[in-house]
Amino acid sequence: MAESSERDRIDKWLWAVRLYKTRSLATDACRAGSVAVNGQSAKPSRAVHPGEVVGVRQGLIQRTLVVRAVPAGRVGPKLVPAFCEDRTPPAEFEKARGQRVQQILARARGLGRPTKRDRRMIDRIFGSQV
């Protein structure tokens, strides 16, 4: 059985295609069980190959990606589509957007009126309709 090279690791691939800001965050996500390859939970050192389906839980969003290639290092944002295909349904992104609006609008009982900062965020979301 041939050993996989250092660049084929799933944590390094997640970092290289810019899903995580640092490689240690990608490693922590793998250890926490937030990353699955072909439906199975993946350890950080698991080898990744073209054609595999990678599922990543980022907050409320469950992202689905197909590996096209493994880059030698971190790639620029414009080159990311050459290394992965994003098959995340648009409903996942809408779910996260809706949750963000709910967090801004939700106020704990007794906190009073919105602050100036809160008001500006509400205006930015809804425009001048409020």
Key words describing this protein structure:
130 residues, 34% helix, 2 domains, 5-stranded antiparallel sheet, Structural Genomics Hypothetical 15.5 Kd Protein In mrcA-pckA Intergenic Region, Chain A, 5 strands
Mind sketching the topology for me?
Layout: H1 10-16, H2 23-32, E1 35-37, E2 40-41, E3 53-58, E4 61-67, E5 84-86, H3 90-105, H4 116-126
What would your notes on this structure say?
The protein is α+β, with helices and mostly antiparallel strands and about 130 residues long. It has 2 domains: about 90 residues, Roll (Structural Genomics Hypothetical 15.5 Kd Protein In mrcA-pckA Intergenic Region, Chain A); about 40 residues, no CATH class. The chain contains 4 helices and 5 strands. It has a 5-stranded antiparallel beta sheet with strand order 2-1-3-4-5. A hairpin with a 2-residue loop joins strand 3 and strand 4.
What is the residue-mean pLDDT, rounded to a whole number? 84
List low-confidence stretches: none
What would the principal axes of the Cα set say about the shape?
Answer: elongated
- CATH fold topology of the largest domain: Structural Genomics Hypothetical 15.5 Kd Protein In mrcA-pckA Intergenic Region, Chain A
Our measurement of the CA-to-CA distance between the termini, rounded to an integer number of angstroms, reads 64 Å
Helix content range: 25-40%
Structural domain tally: 2
CATH superfamily of the largest domain: RNA-binding S4 domain
- What are the secondary-structure elements, in order, as H or E? HHEEEEEHH
Q: Which CATH class of the largest domain applies here?
A: Alpha Beta
Strand residue content: 15-25%
Radius of gyration: 19 Å
Biggest sheet: strand arrangement: 2-1-3-4-5
Number of strands: 5
Describe the sheet with the most strands: 5 strands, antiparallel
CATH architecture of the largest domain: Roll
